[in-house]
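User: Quick one: structure for sequence A, then sequence B.

Assistant: Sequence A:
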Amino acid sequence: MTAATPTILAINGGSSSIRFALFQRGPPLLRGIAGKIDRIGLDGTTLQVDDPAGECSENGPFPASDHASATRLLIRWLDKHSGLAAVQAIGHRVVHGMAHATPQRVTPELLAELQRISPYDPDHLPGEIALIKAFARRLPDIPQVACFDTAFHHDMPRVACLIAIPRRYQAKGIRRYGFHGLSYAYLIEELQRQGDPAAGSGRVILAHLGSGASLAAVRDGHSIDTTMGFTPASGIPMGTRSGDLDPGLVRFLARDEGMSPTQFHDMVNHQSGLLGVSGISPDLRDLLALEASNAAAADAVALFCYEVTKCIGAYAAALGGLDTLVFSGGIGENAAPIRERICAGLGFLGISLQHQRNAEHAALISKDTGRVTVRVIPTDEERMIARSTCRQLEGVIDA
């Protein structure tokens, strides 16, 4: 990709990282330089960059105490390497979109709305808004598009959106929203590309398993349920997030330890999950290496696999059966022992892994005789952001 090639810049802002990728405008979209700023707000912030030739460079550590300083670092790097010269549009992952079922062109009105709903997602939205504003200052004439993680789940059946608290809170927007929608949208499109009929007219469970983890039940290409709800902290246990909890813990910890709402939020988002159960690490690779000699590590691994297995069984019931199961995310794509353990108790659904395929991380890991197709599909949220940006701006940009 040359500097003169018209490009789409995809920005994927997380709570402590910013991923980015440049795509030559298509179709097809051709991925160019991509990278990640990691450990924002922590010591040792790094910038890692990959180019299409497969070369990788890492620079750092940099001082980046917050998203604003990390964004300035990213813009300086893109400027230096001509990464902004040919940008025709910028797409942003925005975790929470509430009422929006599709990507939206960024306008002052949309920014005001995102600022208004920031309390719904204080870990992501402020940083994502800062990214949008920073790029608007640097490239004021370039259109920006907000691509919402909640949009994929926007039309879930009403029963899957309800939270069993007093009905008056629905008027405040308190409901189950679901997240990881950009990943799920990409996986469904990839299933269609691979010719799996279940993507358009069947029953699919998508397992996005990484440091943040969730599952979605998809019927005929549409989400009918997902594990994350009002916030990304709910659902199955994750790297540092608790997953679903007994709400009685709030009062107990407030009374017993004087824990404030802010401290509780920090605990369930940053001190729990695999890290909390093991007391060692939020990284499943570390825990797998230690489980034979460390009971707490073994507990964390066992709990993660158990909760995912249980969820797959529940979603198969909600779907009335299962045609295809997809593993994705850092754990789902790379941890063969975890996939093996998750599927070990699901033979009654027709799930049966072919062990050699699974060990080799093959695209198809189920037995040819199995009733359920089990696939491993690497997700690509940045590509989905670029696709969504092109589609939303169709007519402004010839996508």
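Sequence B:
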Amino acid sequence: MHDIIIIGGGPTGINCAIEAQKAGFDYVILEKGVLVNSIFNFPANMTFFSTSLKLEIGGTPFISHSDKPTRREALEYYRRLLENFDLNIEFDTEVKSMSKSDGCYIVNTGEKTYKAKYVIIATGFYDHPNMMHVPGEELPKVKHYYDEVHHYIRKKVLVVGGANSACDVALECWQKGADVTMAIRGSELYQRVKYWILPNMENRIKEGSIKAHFSTTIKEIKPKSVILNTPEGEIEIENDFVLAMTGYSPNYDLLSNLGIEIGMDKFRTPVHDETTLETNLPGVFMAGVVGGGLKTNRYFIENTRHHAERIVREIELRESIA
């Protein structure tokens, strides 16, 4: 029996654990993968848009070689937080469902159950890519996570999407010698792409260095080619890899299995109080980016750092008057 179960071992889950520990609560983090699993799956050479100062949690300085830290530096930072606070976290522990009995929540992983009075959902969204639902998407050449460019040197690469991730991937692959084509559902690139990336991307398309098909979707992915639906009709192009930078969304199946209601708004925002962060289930709170639903640009690590303290203070208040 714990006081608090935290679902998700990313930056937000870690922050919640640190605050719970400082307040004297018995807690456990249940993480389906490795420590900060989402960041682990970021591109190998990624640099954060945020500064290290804005990413700090637990009152612990985040020291990086430059103003904006790299993925590698972030992984080391969170590993040190794990060790310094001796956090109670169980890895490779995927939550399947949740029920309630005698005023406590029973969290089930399929192999084990955990019991607590309070639950904090901090699952993020990066672990759940938006699938294209086209024939051939299961082929090994199709990737929803970009790892590193070395795989794609002198390969024919189709990048799907027109937002930040797609533009970053397309430019890096082209710079390292890949033959890059983009399939973009909209009529233009997303105009809020990072200001130093967008002009570069537009110029590469204009000069023909990177081929771009706008208002285009994928019809089928084959082992050596891809069929596209374009405004000019159906075309088939040679292809070695498909990098589907189609975005990510909360794991709504899991939220449903936990009993969390989903709003009727266009962003399918999980129901929760904006002040206390409590969901429709009493004593179950939502922390971090998962609270934004499909509006994945609403929350980031830096603007949800206060969630942990807010939730733990709310639990302290309830326990003090219980």
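The radius of gyration is 21 Å. The longest strand covers residues 113-121.

User: Thanks, that's what I needed.
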